Amino acid sequence: MDKNGQLTFFDDPLLQGINEAYTFIEAGDFTQAVKKIDDLMTINPDYPGLAEAYRVARFWESRKKAMQELQKGKDTADFLMTQWEEFEAFAQNRGLVWATAYQKAMRFVFSLLLSITLLHSMTGKTQLIICSFLCNWELVLLGWASISILLKH
Fold it and tell me: What is the pLDDT of residues 51-65, one digit of tens each?
C-alpha cells in the first residue's frame, strides 16, 4: 500500500499470481504454471490474461513428456520446431499471439533451441562461455556480437 492507504497494483494477489505463472511458463515448468493458474481461476476466472496463460501452459505441458523422452540434441530441436509451428497455428486461431504467456513460451522454446544448437556443436571453453550467456536471455541478445567475436578466435 502507498502512504494514503490506497492499494497499488503490486498489492493485487492475482497480479502477483499471474506473474508467477508467467515465470513458470518462461522456465518451462508448465505443470506448476497450470496449477498456479487453476488456483487463480478459482478466485477470478475473468482476470485479464488468465485464460490465455492457461491455454499456453496446457499446450506445452501436454508435450513435455514427449520432449523428455527424446535424445538430447537434434531430435529435441526438431521436435521443438515442429511443436512451435503447431503452437503458432494454435495461438493464431485463439488470438494468443499478443498475450504475455505466448511471449514467455516463445522465450522458453527459443532459449532451449538456442542452447541445444550451440551446445550440441561446441566443446570445452566455448561451451562454458555460451552457457554463461544462456543463463540470461537478454544477455544472449545483447552479447551476440561479443560471442561471435569470441568464436572467431
Answer: 999 999 999 999 988
